[in-house]
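Hi there, hope your week has been kind to you so far. Do you reckon you could talk me through the fold, stretch by stretch? I've dropped the whole record in just underneath, so have a look:
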Amino acid sequence: MRFKYCPDCGHKLIDREIGDEGLIPYCEHCEKPLFDMFSTCVIALVVNEFEEALLLRQNYISTVYRNLISGYMKPGERAEDAAMREIEEETGITPDSLQFLGTYWFAKKDMLMIGFMAKAQKSAFNISKEVDEAQWIPVEQAIKMVHPKGSVSYALLEKYMSNS
């Protein structure tokens, strides 16, 4: 999101050169720059002891592709805590471990995705109302069921498969 008006005082912003950042919206009244804002989300590939990935069917996201677990971070929340919270909220699964895999820019929604890989024991699900179905799928098959190459889900599965 690019600011046009100051969220503190309401004055119209001007573009001002700010160091190496280039032209940035600036409030002359408050004497401060207002850098672009974007959402920060977590995304997690959960894998069990049988090399199966946890995939979700969430029709409000896609009726064609399956999804990894993802969600928005809350203010003040660490990314690791957000990933664990989302896994537990959406599936009822409590991971044994969590490993940071990288950050990914999701241009379609202007959001930063922080990727994780979680290990969990295969068990039954207690899915949330935002999940239509959860399944354990062999990793080699799972990569064919998520959004295609170029998506964050595909990148996480591809990274996992190349390290296995």
Q: What stands out?
A: The chain has two domains: 1-37, 39-163.
